Amino acid sequence: MVKRFFIVVAAVLCTLAVQAQASGSVGVTGQGSVPSFWKNMVIEFNVGTGTGHDGMSPLEIGGNLGYKFIPRLYAFVHGGCLYGMYDKDHGQVYTKSATLAGGLGFNVMRVDNIDLDLRVSAGGSVGNADWKHTVYDAGLAFRIGGVGKLKVNVGLGFRHVSSRTAGIGAYNGFYGTLGVGF
Hints:
Layout lengths: L1 H19 L15 H4 L1 E10 L5 E15 L2 E16 L2 E21 L2 E13 L6 E12 L6 E13 L7 E11 L1
Antiparallel strand pairs: 1-2, 1-8, 2-3, 3-4, 4-5, 5-6, 6-7, 7-8
């Protein structure tokens, strides 16, 4: 069910992206300005936390690196360290795992210097993780700041984590992020 939801959202974003191609061009730059490649980069660093579910409370420190292929659509790679605190027999236990994911972002609207992006991503744990999992995210990201300047990012969304570690169940919950981007 969750996988189908993400596939439908990705298909809708792709349909909207085709319509957005006619509204502007990516990569156009004036003489003496910053090269268009760097203007189209999406670079972000953030800290996020989620609501507790079945005794699990997640915390993630990570970053996104992406590129705008057309004015409103970008693809990104997400890397981070996901920490999970859970209550095991009334004793707190911490797990950690490196997470690598890929996703799509779509700029829904821009008002003055505030962008509202819809993002979907899917990924999983890599390396020797304490908490082996597959993660699916869908959320809204508010990017506040001028074009080509440092931006403050605030995100809200829903996350499903399918656990592959014995003793740790699947996680479903809402999350929030706070970070900076360029």
